[in-house]
Amino acid sequence: MSCCCEKKDPNQEAVDAVLAKYKGTKGALIPVLQQCQDIYGYMPKECMAQISKGLNIPLSEIFGVVTFYAQFHLNPRGRNIIRCCLGTACHVRGGAKIFERVQKVTGVKDGETTEDLRYTLESVACIGACGLAPVIMVNDDTHGRLTPDKIPDILAQYE
Ligand code: FES
Q: Domains of the chain (ranges plus CATH)?
């Protein structure tokens, strides 16, 4: 049996609920964007369009905010975020070689996400664990005193 009514996808419905909650509220854009990004895991274009309509804010303005703040992501993110430190302390202790090996093992470069969405790779400047240099973080875990050969086993722990 076919149905004549067009069903919205559950993500769009969840975005509608967020929009309804903030309708008419001043300064709603950032919290709306944060909550909508939590729904998708990133900020797809169609979601920005829905927010633009719902809050009556031009799409160009929303795009400007999303691209300005590092907390918003235009592309899907991996299940595991790898942060490779390239700060000074890590650099002098071979951070570049660690970064190189991480790129080789994952097959992606800085800022990219693997096709299977297993990893997103980001370089950072100091994650506050200089005493353990060279350091990477995977999600909330800090891995320090690294050598390139330790990288495959560390990354294998993260599905
Ligand atoms: S420079 Fe790498 S943790 Fe500080």
A: 10-68 (no CATH), 80-156 (3.40.30.10)
